[in-house]
Design brief:
With 337 residues, this protein is of the alpha/beta class. It has 2 domains: 63 residues, no CATH class; 203 residues, Rossmann fold, CATH 3.40.50. Helices cover 47% and strands 9% of the residues. It is built from 13 helices and 6 strands. A 6-stranded mixed β-sheet has the order 3-2-1-4-6-5, with helices on both faces.
Length: 337
Amino acid sequence: MLNTYPLYHKPPSLSNPGERRVLKNSENTSKMLFNLLIGLGRPVVVQYVKLAHRFHPHPEKPENLLLGRQVGNLPRNRGQHKNMQITRESIFNDPEVRKRAHFLLRKINKAIRDYSLIEDGDKIAVAVSGGKDSLTLLHLLHWRRNFVPQKYELIAVNVQTDYGYGASRETLEAIFQREGLPYVFEHVSLKEGSRVDKEPLNCFWCSWNRRKALFLTAHRLGCNKLAFAHHADDAAATLLLNLFYHGRVEGMKPKLEFFGGVITVIRPLIYVEESEILRFARAAKLMLAVDDCPLKKATKRARMKELVKALERELPQIKVNLLKVALGTRYGRHRNM
């Protein structure tokens, strides 16, 4: 048999009974495989070795390479589903984006199952501001439809204001059309009915009007659910916000009914940390250049996030502990999915 061990980091230890038994059982397969590869020529052998190093964690063990074994809890080499509906320009044509999407979908699917966030026949309005969080949520819920038996509709809803903060309509429209998603743009005037002439614009007035527009638009479109892109870091900050400013221990609910159940707010990213969203958004090129609100970094929520980051340097588990309080023990069980 051809000695292939120099191709790897080290030969298998023949003093190990387990490895010796595996090599003995795979001897015939090894001979057939390498005779075939050598017959096809050296370039084929080189390509095969490169693929082996890519898909196997221990390519130095010939039994793993020759028999094509998956070792440990490796993710499968997921290709495109045979019934997958994606456009030619979709970000999911990139294998790296698909890999990161499947990683995040494990946590999203856990949240959906734990809280029954999405059911068959749902019509979901996804609030899209143009930031990395909302765009990630929209793309992942869209991609998820290729792998689950649930049938649900998605509509992207963006609320524009007369102050012009956030992503532009043209940029978002190009993204929605690229993925083949239906979308609606709503305009809200924050100056009408406000006291901006006497007092500066505040976050409460802005968020209240934007959320009101989202609820009205979702109801007009016949949607029974409204999806927000709040993630695990937002849940931790909300817990501290309620504790410090309102004197109550209350976290962000993953599912909340409004108007007697006419519209249900869902937060599928509740188990996902912001750093994980950031990695996906960078790989998918969803980090849009937007005009942020000048008050964004001066809000109470922003101060709570900075506090958590500062404490995390000394107490690495503080975010996990806060989320256990906010979401119960469920987050602790699913954190290392």
